[in-house]
Amino acid sequence: MSDGFPGPIAAIVVAAGRGERAGGGRPKQYRTIGGSPVLARSLRPFLRHDRIGLVVAVVNPDHGDLYRQCAPQRDKLLPPVDGGATRQESVRRGLEALEPRRPSLVLIHDAARPFLTGAVIDRVIAGLAESEAVLAAVPLADTLKRAEPDGIVTTTPSRDGLFLAQTPQGFAFEAILAAHRQAAGADGTFTDDAAIAEYAGIPVRLVAGDPANTKITTEEDIRMAERLLSAGRETRIGSGYDVHRLGPGDAVILGGVEIPSDRSLIGHSDADVVLHALTDAVLGALAEGDIGTHFPPSDNAWKGASSDRFLADAVARVAARGGTVVHLDATVIAEAPKIGPHREAMRRRIAEICALAPDRVSIKATTNERLGFVGRGEGIAAMATATVQLPADSE
Ligand code: CTP
Ligand code: MG
């Protein structure tokens, strides 16, 4: 979307660090807080923002698998770019990768800040109508002390006119790309992009950041984030059930995966009973009707539709209410085909659709002991439950 500017507004989320200060089994941007990975949370406000047309993550090439597990499927999310040895180098690589797309503006954000809101993005974009370089910042709240290494205080500097720099920082694209290229040849490294703009002589303007938009640096920050996200949240469980008739054909689609079979499921959409039951389970947890309320079979738009959009839509409704899906569990009830060999592919596909870690998706299967319609091979049924966390004040 050009939005009054001559090209799209792009966002770069730098995630190529090793998170050494936070420690833990995996780099901090791939740790889970409140049910979703830090990086998924820091990408989300850009993916959801209607003025941002392109989003790219800069990722450490050693973390490719971790990235794939947490990156949502969105048209505006470009393939990840390999990061460099420093944050500065990672940002420059992200800018170089965006250049052929000719964005007018770019917002640069640290993956380590998962609490960014659309309101801060709005303020940075608004600031860019006035200046070529804008950063989100907050005034200092605490009194400052300067001390010797032994802890003896020497002075109490005034905090007047001092601010803490946050991200996102927004720039006219061509100007910051040129500044980064220039800075790449300079001595030393810069710790933020506003400093690179200053170095290149571009005037930089502050807009109001958000005190909640903190950076995760240490293990304690991860624990704090987890506490913050669980406070004031309630857990809800929804259930879903679906059945489709079997007819002539050579494959069934279950959990988004095509499985060879001597019969096919018949239905208005692709008849994927697993995704339909899961969609109803998620909608049930929200108490927002069922799949037919949102995608009526009378509407020809959904004829033959791939059911992943139904589930993705239900998950987006959870996100729109400030919630997260924490767990999905489905049972397939079928005499044939055998589900076991396809279980992992189904888990991975469902996790991908919902931007969840695969270990939060469970697929089970049973036959119906040849009893009833399932037992006679007339159809396949699926049951599902979804566990969802919502802000406690959510309706
Ligand atoms: N970053 C990056 N490329 C690097 C170093 C850092 O993209 N070579 C990113 C980090 O992933 C993070 C942001 O820059 O989102 C801010 O860096 P920092 O908080 O220092 O993260 P890390 O470098 O990962 O952590 P540490 O310094 O503790 O190792
Ligand atoms: Mg670092």
**SSE order:** EEEHEHEHEHEEEEHHEHEEEEHHHEHEHE
Question: Helical content, roughly?
Answer: 25-40%
**Broad shape:** elongated
Q: State the total count of DSSP E strands.
A: 18
Discrete helix count: 12
Class inferred from helices and paired strands: alpha/beta
Bound molecules: cytidine-5'-triphosphate, magnesium ion
Strand order of the largest sheet: 5-4-1-6-10-7-11
Distance between the termini: 32 Å
Largest sheet: 7 strands, mixed
Which stretches are poorly predicted, pLDDT < 50 over at least 5 residues? none
Please, what is the average pLDDT? 94
* Rg, alpha carbons: 24 Å
What portion of the residues fall into strands of 2 or more residues?
25-35%
Structure write-up:
The structure is a single chain. With about 400 residues, the chain is an alpha/beta fold. About 30% of the residues lie in helices and about 30% in strands. It is built from twelve helices and 18 strands. It has helices at about 40-50, 65-70, 85-100, 120-125, 175-185, 195-200, 220-230, 275-285, 290-295, 310-320, 345-355, 370-375, and strands spanning about 10-15, 30-35, 35, 55-60, 80, 105-110, 135-140, 145, 155, 165-170, 205-210, 235-250, 250-255, 255-260, 265, 325-335, 360-365, 380-390. The strands form five sheets. It has a seven-stranded mixed sheet, sandwiched between helices. A hairpin with a 2-residue loop joins strand 13 and strand 14 (about 255-260). The longest helix has 14 residues, at about 275-285. The radius of gyration is 24 Å and the shape is elongated. The mean pLDDT is about 95. Bound molecules: cytidine-5'-triphosphate (CTP) and magnesium ion (MG). Cytidine-5'-triphosphate (CTP) binds near residues 16, 22, 58 and 111. Cytidine-5'-triphosphate (CTP) binds near residues 84 and 215.
